Predict the structure of STAS/SEC14 domain-containing protein.
Amino acid sequence: MLEILPETHDDMLAVRVSGELTNEDVDLYRDLIRGRMKQYGAARLYYEMVNLTWVKPGAALENALFDLVHGRAYDRVAMVGEKVWQKWAANLISPVKKKGVRYFELAEREQAMRWVQTGQE
């Protein structure tokens, strides 16, 4: 499930994913981030993962391809999670993002949000 967080505004998209991430969730995410990239030239992203149990393989592949094509249009990206594989995923996609990806633990979510918003911890 994809939840749009209230901190979403202007060039910043803040989302929380949980449970099962579907193709429709990934389509919505891509539409929202693409719109910000188009309007502002770049987009900041806060991406929080809580109790994420499954990502549909097709959705994961489509998202990876989107990141490869549009990676340079991302500004600051914070991935917030609770599992080792989520940290690995952040490290894996970091090189294709303009400013890389910073990974934060769930306990650091306020620090992550502040960093995405202001560039400071």
Q: What stands out?
A: The chain has one domain: 2-118. Helices lie at 23-40, 57-70, 84-93, 109-118. The radius of gyration is 13 Å. The first strand starts at residue 2 and ends at 4.
